[in-house]
Write a structure and sequence with these properties.
heterodimer, A: alpha+beta, globular, B: alpha/beta, Rossmann fold, 2 domains, elongated
Chain lengths: ~80, ~625
């Protein structure tokens, strides 16, 4: 599924960054990269950005269009662990 | 080691590199005692702080606080902070002096820091790792194994905290060790950051703990709440504006009074002649204007620095991103646009935080439309002159409308500019912004920022205003050929009369035209210029009542004229300092000339329309 559709506080892992190469490089450099556990903390109103947290300890604001292009694989076990 | 070698003083350059929010500035502050001058890097436009510290056993190290860097490999706009940081290192390297790249890594984000380390090692520069936030890490019960990192990475690693009393000692000792030897270059290492970080951080329990993030998460629950969040944001912004208004105003009056007394002293001592007039009306008048605006610049700069250092800035960008996208800008543009409400000059410098070059250009083109504090005296004068009888509430409402007009104009301008830009390339880069943990800003760091903002403002804007003030004084004192010595017949007045045919449809006459000429030097000069052309001696610039009465009762001016003049002031980029800053920032004349052309053009049309409509409604 896409990151933008991931329910709040639900654990997942980034599987692919389906964006153009330079944006993908930027995302990886900032801290959103493949195999990272990721959680959506909140969404801004009216179609604004997403606030996510990754397991490397980073939190990021991502434009919704980017979130719509990031593939994630939901983790079916312990939600709390991935959020930590 | 030869005697000659040990006799030579050891000097070494240390570039502090690291991700944004890693804690570079706090560490820099702790290492250098906060003493800093802005480094001299030709071709580098961003402020890179540099300061020296003496090394134990002789010699000195110069620390450079570079802007944050996420990657050394990623394609980056050379004008952005990241691009500038890389350019700085390139300069240090090519300068041929001994230099070390000290990467500042946040211990609570070790994985992300190590990803940059991996790229850094490949560059094979002499490298040192300073892992900060050690205290935060230890509070959560974990410990960093610095020796393990040293072994695995092949570079010296220090676990420090900017709050440690001995951090300076320890870092300088490590630098001394490096500097005394041959400065070994780093070697590229293949490692998996996540795996290495896991081994390097010893935790008592298996569950990774993010103590600082817990309090951050709690704060975000309020500050980013869908309803409370925007309310808090608006309250903070309004408090900022009110502070600029309320606190700055008495400070300005006080400065004004002081300068008034100095002027009186000069005239009393040397008599009222051309030279004292030049000194008092020209130079001191201009200086007074500059000093009167200093409190506002300081307040806004300090407030923005606190907002940034605390981590709230990213939250603000998160909240307004969607709104600004409607105008074709993005969340990060809100800082320059906000700063522009005090003064466009520091705002232009702050556009560096906008990563996308197209969005940055658009922000630059639009921010002169924001209602800067220099427009306030003119608005105040016009409102006092033409809406005296309407009461305080109405007058306040007019002020608010003018502020909103600036913002609305900015929106529209951004959309129009966007339409023309879109034909040239793809849309603005979407938002990718790190949301750092909330931190208490360090008073010393914030204070230094305020001081730097002051000196910069005085240097860049202050000098322009004083020069403009003197130039205007000359134009108003020098009589037109063959005419008597009074303002009504000065060169400035002659120019004003010359402009009348052009400005008549707007309801302006030569006095206002002279004022507009003067206000190009500095908007603040409009009021004093009108004062001179009306022959009204003002006790202080703020005492506009006599002038307002004169203007209000002048049959040549109607309310329509006042409205047209306000419309003109809202839009026109009447500020030499802004033009100069735009030229500095974009390294060319295209952008400033375009801004002048489109804002004056729009101002003319708007004033024309307003005047004609207002006159039609009045009759």
């Amino acid at each position: 599924m896409k990151l933008v559709d991931l329910p709040l506080a639900s654990a997942a892992r980034v599987s692919a960054l389906a964006v153009d190469a330079s944006l993908a490089r930027r995302l990886r450099a900032v801290g959103v990269f493949e195999d990272e556990a990721i959680v959506v903390l909140r969404r801004a109103v009216f179609g604004g950005p997403l606030h996510v947290r990754t397991s490397s300890g980073g939190e990021f604001a991502l434009d919704r269009r980017i979130a719509a292009a990031i593939d994630v694989a939901p983790e079916l076990d312990d939600t709390a662990e991935a959020a930590e | 080691m030869s005697a000659a070698r040990s006799a030579r003083p050891v000097t070494i350059d240390i570039a502090l590199l690291g991700r944004p929010n890693a804690g570079k500035s706090s560490l820099y502050n702790a290492l250098t005692g906060g003493d800093a001058k802005v480094g001299n890097f030709p071709g580098i436009t961003v402020d890179v702080l540099e300061a020296s510290a003496p090394l134990p056993g002789g010699g000195s190290a110069t620390f450079f606080d570079l802007p944050g860097v996420y990657s050394l490999e990623d394609d980056v706009d050379p004008e952005s902070d990241e691009g500038q940081a890389r350019a700085c290192i390139a300069r240090l390297e090519s300068a041929g002096e001994r230099f070390v790249v000290a990467q500042v890594v946040d211990a609570t984000q070790l994985v992300l820091g190590l990803r940059l380390t991996r790229e850094l090692l490949e560059k094979r520069w002499p490298t040192l790792l300073l892992v900060t936030q050690r205290d935060v890490l230890e509070k959560s019960g974990a410990r960093l194994d610095a020796e393990l990192l040293e072994r695995e990475l092949g570079v010296r690693v220090l676990a420090v905290s900017a709050r440690d009393p001995d951090v300076r000692e320890r870092v300088l000792a490590a630098v001394r060790e490096l500097a005394a030897g041959d400065l070994p270059r780093a070697e590229a290492r293949a490692f998996e950051p996540r795996e290495l970080a896991e081994r390097a951080i010893r935790r008592p329990s298996l569950r990774p703990s993010h103590a600082s993030r817990d309090s951050t998460a709690r704060a975000d629950a309020i500050l980013l709440h869908p309803v409370i969040g925007p309310i808090v944001f608006v309250v903070i912004m309004m408090a900022l504006f009110s502070a600029v208004f309320l606190v700055a105003d008495p400070a300005s009056r006080a400065l004004d009074a002081i300068l008034g007394r100095v002027s009186a002293r000069v005239v009393a001592t040397f008599g009222a002649n051309l030279w004292t007039s030049l000194l008092c009306d020209g130079v001191l008048g201009g200086a007074g204007t500059v000093l009167a605006f200093l409190p506002q610049i300081v307040i806004l700069t300090l407030a923005l620095e606190i907002i940034d250092a605390s981590g709230y800035l990213a939250r603000g960008a998160f909240l307004v991103d969607r709104l600004l996208r409607l105008a074709g800008l993005g969340g990060t543009s809100f800082v320059p646009l906000l700063t522009a409400h005090a003064c466009a000059v520091p705002a232009i410098a702050s556009t560096r935080i906008v990563r996308d070059p197209r969005q940055r250009l658009r922000t630059l083109l639009v921010l002169p439309l924001m209602t800067c504090s220099a427009r306030i005296p003119t608005y105040g004068l016009l409102i006092a002159a033409f809406f005296r009888h309407r009461g305080a509430l109405f007058q306040a409402a007019v002020f608010v409308c003018l502020y909103c007009a600036g913002i609305l104009a900015g929106f529209v301008a951004s959309l129009v500019i966007g339409k023309t830009m879109e034909r040239r390339g793809p849309r603005t880069l979407p938002l990718v912004l790190e949301m750092p943990a909330y931190r208490l800003p360090q008073v010393r760091v914030v204070f230094r920022m305020g001081v730097r903002a002051c000196t910069r403002f005085l240097r860049e804007v202050g000098t322009v205003i004083v020069v403009a003030s003197v130039a205007l004084w000359m134009l108003m004192k020098i009589p037109a050929p063959g005419a008597p010595h009074d303002p009504q017949h000065s060169v400035a007045a002659a120019i004003g009369h010359g402009l009348e045919p052009v400005t008549k449809p707007l309801g302006f006459d030569w006095r206002i035209d002279v004022g507009l000429i003067g206000s190009f030097g500095a908007r603040e000069l409009m009021v004093s210029t009108l004062g001179v052309t009306y022959g009204v001696e003002q006790e202080g610039k703020k005492d506009v009542a006599p002038l307002a009465d004169r203007i209000g009762s002048d049959p040549a001016y109607s309310t329509a004229t006042a409205l047209a003049l306000m419309a003109f002031f809202v839009l026109a980029c009447q500020c030499m300092s802004t033009v100069a800053a735009l030229r500095r920032e974009t390294k060319g004349w295209r952008v400033p000339l375009f801004v002048l052309a489109y804002t004056y053009g729009a101002a003319y049309v708007a004033a024309l329309v307003v005047h004609q409509i207002a006159r039609a409604l009045a009759s």
